[in-house]
């Protein structure tokens, strides 16, 4: 690996859920991601802020992010991260923002993920 990427593990307890289109969502408070397609409206949010009218949900997630702003010309960042985790049989749910990438993992896998990534040369901050 070229320069070591810095990863920050977050303390948030997260939920991944599917909600009805038209659901009122308050995305102004806390960690929040939304995916709207022709088939579904999916939300990642802090567990205690999960909308009451979810259709389906899965609790027990946490996340880490790649620190800093990633240039759009960079390639393979998520691929390398998820390969390290897949080799340890750690499932992921990835989301990206304009600046960086977030990788959700199950809370039960957090310690194993931190160790695997550190062993692979990533800096955990």
Describe this structure in words.
The protein has about 120 residues and is of the alpha+beta class. It has a single domain (about 5-125), classed as VC0802-like (2-Layer Sandwich). It is built from two helices and eight strands; from the N terminus they run βββββαββαβ. Strands 1, 2, 3, 4, 5, 6, 7 and 8 form an eight-stranded mixed beta sheet that branches. The radius of gyration is 15 Å and the shape is globular.
SSE sequence, one letter per element: EEEEEHEEHE
- The CATH class is identified as Alpha Beta
- Our count of domains comes out at 1
How many DSSP H or I helices?
Answer: 2
Q: Average pLDDT value?
A: 91
Using the coordinates shown, work out and report the CATH topology. VC0802-like
- Overall radius of gyration: 15 Å
- CATH architectural group: 2-Layer Sandwich
| Proportion of helical residues | 10-25%
Structural class: alpha+beta
Model regions low in confidence, pLDDT < 50 over at least 5 residues: none
Could you tell me how far the N terminus lies from the C terminus, measured between alpha carbons in angstroms? Answer: 18 Å
CATH superfamily: VC0802-like
| Beta-strand segment tally | 8
Shape: globular
Instruction: Note the main sheet.
Output: 8 strands, mixed
Please indicate the percent range of residues in DSSP E strands (runs of 2 or more): 35-45%
């Amino acid at each position: 690996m070229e320069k070591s990427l810095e990863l920050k593990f977050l303390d948030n307890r997260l939920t991944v859920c599917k909600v009805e289109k038209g659901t009122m969502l308050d995305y102004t408070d806390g960690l929040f991601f939304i995916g709207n397609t022709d088939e579904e409206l999916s939300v990642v949010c802090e567990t205690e802020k999960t909308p009451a009218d979810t259709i389906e949900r899965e609790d027990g997630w946490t996340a880490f992010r790649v620190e800093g702003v990633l240039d759009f010309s960079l390639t393979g960042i998520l691929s390398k991260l998820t390969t390290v985790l897949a080799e340890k049989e750690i499932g992921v749910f990835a989301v990206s923002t304009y600046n960086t990438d977030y990788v959700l993992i199950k809370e039960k896998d957090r310690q194993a993920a931190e160790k695997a990534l550190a062993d692979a040369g990533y800096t955990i901050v």
